[in-house]
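Records of this kind hold a single protein each, on a pair of labelled lines. Below, a sample record shows both lines together.
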Amino acid sequence: MAAVSSRSQFFARLILAALVFCVPAMPVISQQPPVRSPSDTVREFYKAMREKRFREAFALSIYRPAIDPLKPQEFEDLRPDFEKMAAILPDQVNLGGEQISGDLATVFVKVKEGDKPEQLEPVPLILIDGQWIVGDRENQAVVKKAGKQFFFNTRVDIHHSEVQEMLTRVSLAELLYSQQHEGRFGDLATLISLGLLPKDLEGTASTGYRFRVNAPDGGKSWNAAAEPAQYGRTGKLSFYLDAAGVRSGDTGGKPLTPAKN
């Protein structure tokens, strides 16, 4: 599912660009190891994520207030999202230096995508209670305010955007199908069988939404709808699409119809 995958990777990179981890700060005495440098904390974060030690990793970031209050089942609910983040991480993290100014730092990570030239991507850090963590104070305040709802809210926002994009694909698929079938339209199963829509629309695992595409009256017209698989967890808005465009609204997870818009 190209659109969903692209946006998920984009979100994952935004998250990863705001996270770095280090050991808890300790008094500076000869028996204790020194606090990790910004560069060392970047390496440690990537290592923890690749090894899927998600709670340990996130607990040492500006996202700690979003992780610590999670109950075991809530954490497991979010695990697939964390695993998607880990899946796109490089096996080796190559750094291009760091800059430190007071309690702020920037580590430059070398990023190479496909055939594009290698680029340096800045990762911001802040010094809190003697330890470096990635992120800025503005986002730190946002996370603290949202608490354990932060990752759930972020997931919901992403799913809403992804559903909008997918419904645009549905509209284009119906246009293409009608051009090839004398003005008739196809339902979801038909459009999927022809490769006009991704097969994962048959389930909810990758989208968090239940999609329906209908072609009533023998395909003389069409409409589509999408509702969250878990209201409040995978989405809050219900969507309805026909030739007039997309409508959306919070119906508590129930289907949205034009009459309710």
